[in-house]
Design goal:
Elements: H1 2-13, H2 20-32, H3 35-51, E1 53-54, E2 61-62, H4 68-71, E3 76-83, H5 86-93, E4 100-104, H6 122-130, E5 136-139, H7 145-158, E6 165-168, H8 184-192
Helix pairs in contact: 1-2
Length: 198
């Protein structure tokens, strides 16, 4: 039995952010669960891995060829928001403030990790631009060095697409933040992206 426990803990430990202690707690929790509940969980995980695909249009998660967002005729098809990962789509969708389409790059350019532009879904994005329907691309990438590098690269590539306006999400001081704790670059973005008070 100890060997089985070690195997389960080892498998849980392979997940990002899960250390040995957390993996042990999860394994012990599984032992307290009903057998049928554990079986249902295992089936759901297996089905998720085999039945979820990437949308052929935007690279978002989908259970078919096209994701729900791309298939929704009520979405603004002239605007595409470029994000790093699927979780970023979920974050923006939860705000209920954006009604356009998305494009998921699948990461950011990171030479230290061996990730270059060819490892991202940039060509898929450029193919969408070539169709001529998109009028604005919003870059919603992180403010890390890798995110800024990716934004710079995309800006250069997308400037080749005529009739497409490029924008990025506003950056600066977060709601509830105090100025004295913000770094100079954040304050500079906040000053640069200031809004007129009506």
């Amino acid at each position: 039995m100890a060997k089985l426990l070690d195997e389960v803990v080892s498998e849980f430990s392979r997940l990002p952010g899960i250390g040995h202690r957390t993996a042990m707690r999860l394994a012990m929790h599984l032992l307290r669960m009903e057998v049928q509940d554990v079986a249902l969980m295992a089936q759901s995980i297996a089905r998720f891995r085999t039945e979820i695909h990437y949308c052929r249009c935007c690279n978002n998660l989908s259970d078919g060829e096209v994701c729900e967002i791309c298939a929704d005729p009520s979405r603004d098809r002239t605007t595409v928001c470029v994000v790093e990962q699927v979780k970023d789509v979920l974050s923006i969708e939860n705000t209920h403030q954006y009604n356009g389409l998305y494009h998921v790059l699948g990461g950011v350019i990171s030479p230290m990790q061996g990730i270059g532009p060819s490892d991202l879904k940039v060509d898929l994005l450029l193919d969408r631009m070539a169709q001529g329907e998109v009028k604005e691309v919003i870059l919603a990438l992180s403010t890390t060095v890798e995110g800024e590098t990716t934004s710079f690269y995309l800006t250069r590539r997308l400037q080749e697409c005529s009739g497409v306006r490029l924008s990025s999400i506003a950056r600066g001081i977060g709601f509830g933040d105090e100025l004295e704790y913000a770094d100079e670059l954040t304050i500079a973005h906040a000053i640069h992206n200031r809004q007129r008070i009506e």
